[in-house]
Amino acid sequence: MPSNTSEIPVVDRAATPPGTWRDLFSPQHLPAALVLAGGVAMYATNVYVTAALLPSAVAEFGGAEFFAWAATAFLTASVISSMLVTRAVARFGSARSYVAAFVVFAVGTLINMLAPSMGVLLAGRAVQGLGGGLLAGLGYAVIRTALPERLWTRAAGLVSAMWGVGNLLGPGLGGLFAQFGVWRGAFALLAVIALALAWISRKAVPGAANNTADVPPIPVLGLTLLALAAAAFSVTAVLPRGAATAVGLGLSILVLIAFVARERVASATVLPRLTYRRGNPLKWVYLTLGLLSAGAMAEAFVPLFGQQLAQLSPLIAGFLGAALSVGWTTAQLLSVNINSARGRRAVMLLGPGVLAAGLFAYAALAADGADGWLVLAWAAALFTAGCGIGMAFPHLSVAAMRSSSDPSEGAKAAAGVSTTQLIANAVSSAIVGILVAAGGPSPLGSAQMMAVGIGVAALVGVGCAVFAIRVRRTR
After folding, report:
1. CATH number of the domain encompassing residue 417
2. Is pLDDT larger for residue 288 or for residue 472?
3. For the chain, how many structural domains are there in total?
4. 13 domain residue, yes or no
5. Cα separation of 419 and 401, whole Å?
6. 369 Ramachandran zone, left/alpha/beta (phi>0; psi -120 to 50)
7. Which of 231, 251, 267 is the last residue of a domain?
């Protein structure tokens, strides 16, 4: 195979000595780390804060029939904007892109705060999504330029851990404001934090645009098809179960296939060209990341099953649901200490398998009328599942960043991590809803069907990780 100087072996490159947490949080690098992690934390926290606040908003001005569309509007808009990250950085620079993303997010949040009706709140959610998608993508794309390579793995681990942190903080923060009847105050707080991070980002990340880079045209058709696919999967999740769900899922898959077919022949693509190039492992890296992200979707239903199967209070059931996020965050912060190439390969292979094992254990332990000890066993199984996501995610993210030595392609590959994650969330949320319905009408059957279905998908992720490593070796 002819050599290509824009490509380098994925996963194993470690030409520089590894950095430390002290180095990452030193005065020199702390502002950049704060902005990178803060942007993703804002996105993740907002998802769960809004979910906790929506019942209060509906009680105030109605619109319960549009309850599920609040998530759909946010997710679809974030998928669209996440695809424009590398173009924004190349044209305007990282600093301006971050400032714009935080400001747009703050504007959407303020619209939510002032919303007099569900229609206005949905518009605010869409604006939030546009800013949030940029923040999620910038968190990975800017690591390459904001920090030295020795800190990439730790920075990727920190940024990725913010998804778990957001899952932990969001429900508590939203529930606290809702409890005191001041749900609008939560949005005001998020807006203030977003504007503060916008101010910090002016100097914390590289400011200059890459005027020497050839900024490719926007792939309008590819973006349209992918946005339609994301919207279709999101809508499918809220359709009545049965024929409507089957039709929606089929149409969603057809649109996604059309997107991939377009990407393979287009001159301007959404994901890096390396994704579709034969002999490059990037597509397998993305698929593994997507399947790991899908595993986190189980978290949305765990509190409900905790209340139904073990008669837990909403507060305790919420903590049970957070067990997966705790495992994700804990394993992620420990996994970044692995510096050997063999160790990185091992956790990338083990991660999806550990996720599957934890979910299968949860399915096996699920039972009606569970006592306290069994609930603790559920928490341990979910913690294990989260560890599977956390141990592999930062190393797969860095593998994507190192898929090309060309700065433009490398940044695009890094931003593709977030796009892949958001698409996986949209797809898997629909699949999880279908699995829960298929296991019904009993809560026990729904819990088991959901856990087993996502666990099987995680096992597919093991195969994708094997292909990623094998393709790299053949190169």
Report:
1. 1.20.1250.20
2. 288
3. 3
4. no
5. 14
6. left
7. 267
> In this structure, what token pair is assigned to residue 59?
């009680």
Rounded CA-CA distance 65/53 in Å is 16
* pLDDT mean over 153-182: 79
Single-letter amino acid, residue 469: I
In this structure, are 127 and 252 located in the same domain? no
Instruction: Return phi, psi of residue 280, to 5°.
Output: -105, 135
Spatial CA neighbour of 90 closest among 377, 353, 411, 343: 411
Domain containing residue 263: 219-267
Same domain for 373 and 468, yes or no, is: yes
Answer yes or no: is 161 within a domain.
yes
Cα 72 from Cα 238, distance rounded (Å)? 9
Residues 288 and 156 in one domain: no
Judgement on whether residues 61 and 175 belong to the same structural domain of the protein: yes
Contacts of 323 (CB under 8 A, 6+ apart): 302, 378, 379, 380, 382, 383, 386
58/249 Cα distance (integer angstroms): 29
Tokens of residue 320, six digits: 């049970």
Domain boundary among 184, 208, 232: 208
Q: 244 and 312, same structural domain?
A: no
- Look at residue 443 in the predicted model and tell me its pLDDT: 85
Considering the domain architecture, whether residues 309 and 400 belong to the same structural domain is answered as yes
Contact at 8 Å (CB) between 85 and 415? yes
Among 394, 373, 396, which Cα is nearest to 328's? 394
Q: How far is 194 from 111, CA to CA, in rounded Å? A: 14
Residue that is written with structure tokens 């679809």 in the block:
76
Task: Tell me if 473 is assigned to some domain.
Answer: yes
pLDDT tens, position by position, 309-350: 888 776 677 678 778 888 888 888 888 888 788 888 899 999
Looking at the fold, whether 175 and 289 belong to one and the same domain comes out as no
Q: Is residue 395 part of a domain?
A: yes
Q: Which residues sit opposite 404 in a β-bridge? A: 7
Residues 54 and 151 in one domain: yes
Inter-residue contact 47 to 166 (CB < 8 Å):
yes
Please tell me the pTM assigned to this model.
Answer: 0.74
